[in-house]
Design brief:
Layout (H helix, E strand, L loop, with lengths): L19 H31 L7 H29 L2 E3 H34 L1 H7 L2 H29 L8 E3 L2 H4 L3 H35 L4 H37 L4 H14 L4 H8 L2 H16 L13
Antiparallel strand pairs: 1-2
Helix pairs in contact: 1-2, 1-11, 2-3, 2-5, 3-4, 3-5, 3-7, 3-8, 7-8, 8-9, 8-10
């Protein structure tokens, strides 16, 4: 069975396989969910790139960056899920690529959430300075820093493995789990330390932004509605962060549930995969793709164009979150 994700969710030595019909059903569910989410994310990406007005708004640049990041993460984990059934074991070098992509994109989401929360805080609490602080150029610099912060801590796992393992190790086939590739115990402790630091900083950033906007919403009279919407957006980011954090406690939860329900280990692993790695990906389209008035208007327009095949005029921007 497949816990194809960046964290080990399968106890060492546990080789348990689903029946054919069960395995087929689980893979169909995963592929269907992937297809639905990929279609939604694809529509969001097309909407963004078809309207130049989004290119100049840091909020939407950060949003589409997260959508693309989540799409990559979803595709990689889905592919690993399927491969774990079809092939069970894959080449170590190929597994390294998949695992690192999954790790980078999984770690990327919380930091991107923090950046979006800061942008909302500046927009509501420092509106006169927003255009000066949140420029397009600085937004792309922030995205570069996000990727550096995601890649730097975990790429060292690869360097350590290259230095400590023989070349023949990379020609072997293994069940594709992070602990089966990066086996040094020191690396596990390092990952835990970085996870605690990153999520603590993101959590504090979201709490700070939420409280500041909450106070601003009470004080403002003319822009109270916008402040309340921004507050609700950050609250949803907090829910999204909590769901992202589940990926770091899910191995322990899974082991505990396995002890309580020893005959349900495969079902527990599958539920863990759906809840921890799939469900959070539904929130990104909801937070901005459907709740945001401006983006929703353009999205509907594009869907109508696609359905009818008739060009429509540009829609004037409206006030949003």
């Amino acid at each position: 069975m497949s816990s194809s994700q960046s964290n080990a969710t399968i106890p060492q030595g546990a080789v348990v396989r689903d029946a054919y019909v069960t395995a087929l059903l689980k893979n169909l569910i995963v592929v269907l969910v992937w297809f639905v989410l990929s279609s939604i994310n694809g529509s969001l990406v097309v909407t963004f790139f078809k309207h130049q007005g989004f290119y100049e708004d840091p909020r939407y640049i950060l949003f589409i960056h997260m959508v693309i990041n989540d799409a990559i993460q979803l595709t990689v984990t889905t592919l690993l899920f399927i491969l774990s059934y079809v092939l069970y074991k894959i080449n170590v070098a190929v597994c390294c690529v998949f695992i690192l992509l999954a790790v980078f994109t999984t770690r990327n989401t919380p930091i991107n959430l923090a950046s979006m929360a800061i942008e909302r805080y500046i927009s509501i609490c420092e509106p006169l300075r927003h255009a000066q602080i949140c420029t397009v150029r600085r937004t792309y610099i922030v995205i570069s820093l996000i990727w550096f912060m995601c890649v730097a801590p975990d790429i060292t796992d690869l360097f350590v493995t290259l230095a400590t393992e023989s070349l023949s190790f990379f020609h072997q086939s293994v069940f594709c789990l992070r602990n089966n590739i990066f086996k040094d115990p020191v690396l596990a402790h390092k990952r835990q330390a970085f996870d605690i630091i990153y999520f603590s900083l993101v959590f504090l950033t979201l709490v700070f932004s939420y409280l500041k906007i909450l106070f601003a919403a009470r004080a403002l009279s003319t822009e109270k509605t916008s402040a309340l919407r921004a507050r609700n957006t950050i609250l949803l980011h907090g829910v999204q962060l909590f769901m992202c954090m589940l990926s770091y406690i899910s191995p322990s939860v899974e082991i505990a549930l396995h002890l309580i329900f020893p005959g349900w280990i495969l079902e527990i692993r599958f539920a863990n995969y759906l809840i921890v790695y799939i469900l959070p990906r539904f929130l990104s389209p909801i937070i901005y793709g459907f709740r945001d008035k401006k983006f929703r208007k353009y999205l509907k327009m594009n869907l109508q164009i696609r359905r009818c095949g008739v060009p429509r005029p540009e829609v004037a921007p409206v006030n949003t979150l």
